[in-house]
Amino acid sequence: MNRLKQQLSRIDGKGYKAYKDIQGVYHFPGFQLFIDYVQGDPFASPSRIRIRMEQEKAGYPVVWYKQQHRRTALEDWITRMWFEQTNRFSFKVKGTGKSGLIRVDQPGQEILRRTSAVVTEKYVEVRLTVGLPARGRSVLGNKAEEMLCQFIPQMVRDTLPYAKLEPEKVEERMRLVDNQQEIRARLQEEGWVAFIADGSVLPRESGISDRPLSAGKVVSFQAPDSLKKTISVPHGKPISGMVIQKGITLIVGGGYHGKSTLLQAMERGVYDHVEGDGREYVITVEDAVKVRAEDGRRVEKVNISPFINNLPFGRDTFRFSTEDASGSTSQATNIMESLEAGSRCLLIDEDTSATNFMIRDGRMQKLVSKGKEPITPFIDKVRQLYQEKEISSVLVLGGSGDYFDVADTVIMMDEYQPRDVTAEAKEIAQVRKNERIREGGEGFGDITPRYPLAKGLIPRKGNKEKADAKGRTVIVFGTSTIDLSGVEQLVHPSQTQAIADMMRKLGKKANGGKSLHDLIEELYREIDEKGLDVISLFYGQHPGDLALPRKLELAAALNRLRTLTIK
Ligand code: ADP
Ligand code: MG
Prior knowledge:
Blueprint: H1 2-11, E1 24-28, E2 31-37, E3 47-54, H2 55-58, H3 68-89, E4 102-103, E5 110-111, E6 117-119, E7 123-130, E8 134-135, E9 138-139, H4 141-159, H5 167-190, E10 192-197, E11 204-206, E12 209-212, E13 228-231, E14 239-245, E15 248-252, H6 259-268, E16 272-273, E17 282-284, E18 288-290, E19 299-302, E20 320-322, H7 327-340, E21 345-349, H8 355-358, H9 362-367, H10 382-389, E22 392-396, E23 409-414, E24 417-420, H11 422-431, E25 460-461, E26 464-465, E27 467-469, E28 474-477, E29 480-483, H12 493-507, H13 516-530, H14 551-560
Parallel strand pairs: 15-22, 15-23, 18-21, 21-22
Antiparallel strand pairs: 1-2, 2-3, 3-7, 4-7, 5-16, 6-7, 8-9, 10-14, 10-17, 11-12, 13-14, 19-20, 23-24, 25-26, 27-28, 28-29
This protein binds adenosine-5'-diphosphate and magnesium ion (MG).
The site of adenosine-5'-diphosphate has 16 residues, from helix 6.
């Protein structure tokens, strides 16, 4: 620490570049400070530092981090505590540009694997970004000393040792994530697609806030008796709630009665949520994918022939490519790509679907013959998908009762409460026979693996490589921009940044010999072995603010890259 202080006073008043000299490792009382990267000027992206405390000092019980799900929850907890700490100290020191900034990645409502904090049996580490202070472009050595040698040690003392972590609350969180883990395991064993606990609060505060709608206005979730199951969990009383079985489930009901809200909660249920979120025990199988129409997207050699055939001008739908997909072809593509990436459950909302993809009614079949309609609607494919490939579907559909014929379960949302109306729906389907002709053909068709080439997967820009997230929904990859606004289960910008880094890494492995699916599997195995840090260019140092996306969102980003080239 004294060495750092000396260096800072030596460079005080010099040009900003002199800060480069402080890169290195310093021993502080009780912890180590790593200065991994020093920014080039006060406006550039901030400097990166790490704080490491040995477990002997930190004293975390091994049961907090031995299992992956608990370790992730603990690291997330530490990140949140540090976020509050950094808010107290950030910009207390003032100066030009980012001078005085101290920050750590800020998690949202989901508990994700992150690089912002790391707990091992040897140490605990927190990764921060700081703006080294300057006036104009000259070093403010004293101010830097205040930040690094006073604020940081104080934050470490106040936050990092066992007793400062609020151990009772950590224990409570451990119980929460154990229970979530148990429910996930039960879904797998029982072959359920989702579980929504009684008492859950599904609606969010607003269209731009992911926090729960405040009590009072909320109708909390109550399972109908016929769909209710009770799950014993490791901690506390057994938890009751509604189970969505494998197969085909319809969510029907009047407009504004909470259909989409229920589906959205299920979409997010692929992740674990923090205490107080309202969706703590809304758990969905991890590979469930929301698919929607996304016209305008690019498509590269996807086999959409199960849904689309005989396009005008004889365009190939076994290897369908376009720079500008229509509503229906984009939705077909989104489904086929999700299946290729390994999803076993599709979540579809009428609000974001192409009508002609979802349904073609009896009258329309009479007017427009099958030979003149390239689209085989989802209604004629959804059962084949389940019977032949064991892929389930959950569909929000207030507008078409034709689906009663193909559904296993029909849930009606009625003033935000679910009712089991399966029997009624089946009866109506019996009495009011519909005039449709089934158009699905012999079988579902093939899910065709694709083999990416390195070409187009190298993010070259001039003589540099550039792969960066711009917020949650945009990646700048070389000279092209990827629009992820249609990828609704991407929940945090740090996931998006991780995807950018992962894509750069995949570009080095793609050679036309490995399928997209296998490339992704291989990368995730490496992450499991070496940790999420491994995807970063700064592996071994501060790897940046990254959060693990699902394989499905990584695939989604690759598939939307306009330069992607499939063999
Ligand atoms: P639908 O898809 O059936 O038309 P939505 O799910 O979009 O309806 O919900 C309509 C509105 O009702 C939204 O503003 C939503 O936040 C609110 N809402 C949904 N579920 C609940 C609930 N359980 N309690 C209170 N408000 C809710
Ligand atoms: Mg809706």
